[in-house]
Write a structure and sequence with these properties.
The structure is a single chain. The radius of gyration is 28 Å and the shape is globular. Strands 21-22-23-24-25-26-27-28 form an eight-stranded parallel barrel, surrounded by four helices. Helix 3 packs parallel to helix 4. The protein has nine helices and 47 strands. The protein is mostly beta strands and 790 residues long. The chain has five domains: 153 residues, Sandwich (Jelly Rolls); 109 residues, Immunoglobulins (Immunoglobulin-like), CATH 2.60.40.10; 252 residues, Alpha-Beta Barrel (TIM Barrel), CATH 3.20.20.80; 99 residues, Immunoglobulin-like, CATH 2.60.40.10; 109 residues, Immunoglobulin-like (Sandwich), CATH 2.60.40. Helices cover 12% and strands 40% of the residues.
């Protein structure tokens, strides 16, 4: 079916009494998709979503759009595809309910054909209800936050998500591609149809082709299976993500009546305890990170460029795998993984029948799990980047309650019925000694110390899985290999502070396929999970105004955080030492660092008012030794490198000037890094990540704003309010910084600088020309940058 983007110009209104929009019922607002209503609102310390949702309100909102249906569509099929609506969506077409969809993370289709009114405007209305909170454990956003597509085609057509390409035999000499094409006939008569599959290489050259005739019954559906052989294929890999295009066509009487294109990759994957994970026959360890669905300062709005940028940031920082926690991502995210070479664990649910919040997916699981799993797998199964399907995360029923063992098998079997080419996993966290489940008496006092609650209770839950995900179970990797010698493990969540030990285990144990830190990218919600307390604060999450998790290797703007520089050493991808300076005002205090946190350090040597006071400097260094110099004086040389867990600690008295770390191997200096005390701020520097955008709506450029002194040094301690102005065929979509406690909004034209930096996102409006972004601050000369749009 033909796909038409349906994102532009939706009428928008907020229902009366909706949280964040009390008393507003205006239908005059016009919004473009993707759209996140929640990110536009003021955070509220009394929001029912609480810290889990970053103190953002939800709401009940409506979108409306007209569709002119010409008379020549009388013999056509017309379908709407929604990639994602959060949540509890009801879709009406000409006042007819055509779909209800409670889950906020799976796509769905609405057949409009029976209700079409020809030669006139038809009205689509979408109601989104995210008022019952809390319904998730992190920031969800509210609204139609992914793309919408209008699909039109003949009565006989390829079903949406109806093409499935597999690679049952792969080698660099010749590979087989198996293609299953699902065809629908919504007419009242049988039809004789030809299915043609043509595979093109990256340059548009024909790699393989086949065509088959078949007859499809009236009001019927049929799967057409074909096999194509490609000689000397370009295999898809993380290093070289080579893609092919599968053109699928339906022909009737020699004419094409339907066509669709699918990007595919030719690669083989396998899992076993002796070799771990193999890609194209070679063992590969997964340098992984968990990611939530939001796009940082854009909220949940899934712009294609924002999704691609996430993957580029991760690739640049050494990651080769992501785990989509804890729901299916956007198609644009997976497309970027395919193009850029990022392996994926595609995950379905955060809960089953037993909930974790009062209004979460447990309310719908029993009626919807098959439909939502189908949506995820049928939509995503052609992505070569996906290597594992995950049926859930930290499922409460992992100890067997509420038919947990039975459901573990049902979900795994259902996944394999739709796609048996990938492994099935589920992420398990610890279980407590629940006597009712373990079979032990609640009054029993002679429980043997060696009784293994985890092993025995989760044994049946793990049996249907091909790979068992372990969340925060570092101490079990070796012992469980002895208890379950055929078990393949994946560290699906680990603490940032355990990076060294976790990666050492991955390298040592062949059955442990990879390590996925929580998290690779910071995110909104679970506010303060990565906290460092000094003043006796208690609690898992932070109080208002905390709103980001503050646990990511990369912060919400895309800037590297200290743990990312440490991970560079662990993974062996960087040579330069990293100077991590403990804030001198906390010297002598004992920090309470969250399990997901990191020491409270910054890479700065600008501490006015702290002169002559003691200060601690950590150096992350992959070289065997590191020496620290302050204003040319040596403060000593200490062991570093792997033998010392890539960490050396120094203490000195603060004095302004130059702090330099020099790394040594065999007594020879091989690397160095320098920090300089910054002077007064005098200038702004704007650095766009892209200086040229496409002349199509929704392309983005991320502009880093840095505050510098006269010599070009970053000034990390100034507190200035920045003002953003854009002229030309684009606008400021979002502004932000890495401050997890900021009360500022991410929409608008002003934002305070934080640790010397801020971020602006420019969105093109679809016209060619030049966008000029100007940033100003009191007492600082304004700075501008030009973004071409062509």
């Amino acid at each position: 079916m033909k796909r038409h983007n349906f994102d532009r110009q939706w009428r928008f209104q907020v229902s009366r009494g909706s949280s964040g929009g009390e008393g507003r019922t205006s239908g005059n607002a016009i919004v473009d998709l993707p759209h996140d209503y929640s990110i536009t609102l003021e955070r509220d310390p009394n929001s029912p979503g609480g810290a889990g949702n970053g103190f953002f309100p939800g709401g009940c909102i409506e979108y409306e759009k007209d569709l002119f249906v010409p008379g020549e569509w009388k013999d056509k099929e017309v379908v709407l595809e929604f990639e994602g609506i959060y949540m509890n969506a009801t879709v009406r077409f000409n006042n007819q309910i055509v779909a209800r969809h409670p889950y906020g993370y799976t796509g769905f289709h609405c057949n409009l054909t029976p209700y079409l009114l020809f030669d006139r405007e038809n009205t689509i209305r979408v109601t989104v209800d995210n008022t019952s909170m809390p319904n998730t454990r992190w920031y969800s956003g509210t609204g139609i936050y992914r793309h919408v597509w209008l699909l039109t085609g003949e009565k006989v057509h390829i079903s949406p998500w109806g093409v499935f390409a597999q690679t049952p035999s792969v080698s660099d000499k010749a590979s087989l591609v198996g293609v299953t094409t699902t065809v629908e006939n919504n007419s009242s008569a049988p039809e004789r149809i030809a299915v043609r599959s043509l595979i093109l290489d990256e340059n548009g050259g024909k790699a393989a082709e086949t065509e088959d005739d078949f007859e499809i019954d009236a009001e019927g559906k049929a799967d057409v299976k074909q096999s194509l052989e490609i000689f000397h294929p370009n295999l898809w890999s993380v290093e070289e993500p080579r893609l092919y295009t599968l053109n699928s066509e339906l022909r009737k009487d020699g004419s094409v009546i339907d066509r669709t294109k699918t990007r595919i990759g030719i690669r083989s994957i396998s899992f076993d305890p002796q070799n771990g994970f193999c890609l194209n026959g070679k063992t590969m360890k997964l340098r992984g990170g968990c990611v939530h669905h939001d796009c940082g300062i854009l909220g949940s709005a899934a712009y294609d460029r924002a999704e691609e940028r996430k993957i580029r940031l991760l690739k640049e920082n050494g990651f080769c795998a992501v785990r989509c926690a804890h729901n299916p991502p956007s198609p644009a995210f997976l497309d970027a993984c395919d193009r850029l070479g990022m392996l994926v664990i595609d995950e379905a649910f955060d809960c089953w029948r037993e909930g974790k919040n009062p209004y979460d997916y447990n309310m719908h699981f029993e009626d919807w799990w098959q439909r939502d799993l189908s949506s995820m797998i049928l939509r995503d199964r052609n992505h070569p980047s996906i290597i594992l399907w995950s049926t859930g995360n930290e499922i409460v029923e992992r100890d067997g309650r509420s038919e947990g063992y039975a459901y573990a098998g049902r979900l795994a079997d259902f996944v394999r019925s739709l796609d048996d080419t990938r492994a099935v996993t589920n992420a398990l966290c610890g279980v407590g000694p629940d006597p009712a489940v373990s079979g032990l008496s609640i009054h029993q006092t002679d429980i043997p110390e060696e009784y293994d609650y985890w092993g025995e209770i989760t044994r049946k839950f793990a049996e249907p899985l091909d790979v068992v995900g372990y969340n925060y179970q570092l101490d079990r990797y070796e012992r469980d290999a002895k208890k379950f010698p055929d078990r393949i493990l994946c560290a699906t969540e680990t603490f940032p502070k355990e990076a060294f030990d976790c990666w050492e285990a991955v390298e040592r144990f062949p059955y442990l396929i990879g390590d996925f830190v929580w998290t690779a990218l910071d995110y909104i919600g679970e506010a303060g999970i990565g906290h460092v307390w000094y003043n006796g604060e208690k609690g898992f999450l932070g109080d208002y105004p905390w709103h980001t998790a503050f646990c990511g290797d990369i912060d919400i703007c895309g800037f590297k955080r200290p743990q990312s520089f440490y991970r560079d050493c662990v993974w062996g991808i960087s040579r330069a030492p990293y100077l991590a300076v403990h804030k001198p005002e906390h010297y002598g205090k004992t920090p309470d660092i969250s399990k997901w946190g990191w020491p409270d350090v910054v890479s700065s040597w600008t501490w006015p008012g702290q002169e002559a006071k003691p200060i601690v400097v950590d150096i992350y260094c992959s070289d065997s030794e590191v020496e620290l110099f302050l204003n040319g004086r040596s403060l000593g040389r200490k062991p570093a490198g792997k033998a010392n867990r890539y960490l050396a600690e120094f203490e000195t008295a603060y004095e302004p000037g130059i702090l330099e770390a020099v790394g040594y191997e065999d007594g020879t200096p091989v690397s160095r890094s320098t920090l300089r005390t910054a002077g007064a701020p005098t200038q702004l520097r704007l650095t766009p990540d892209r200086s040229c955008l496409k002349a199509s709506f929704g392309d983005l450029s991320y502009i880093t704003v840095e505050l510098l002194d006269a010599e070009g040094n970053l000034v990390p301690n100034a507190d200035l309010l920045l003002y953003f102005t854009a002229y030309g065929p684009g606008s400021v979509l979002a502004v932000g910084n890495g401050n997890p406690l900021s009360e500022e909004k991410y929409v608008g034209n002003q934002r305070r600088i934080y640790e010397g930096r801020a971020m602006a996102v420019i969105r093109s409006n679809g016209e060619a020309g030049q966008i000029v972004l100007t940033v100003s601050a009191e007492g600082i000369r304004p700075a501008s940058t030009v973004i071409r749009v062509e």
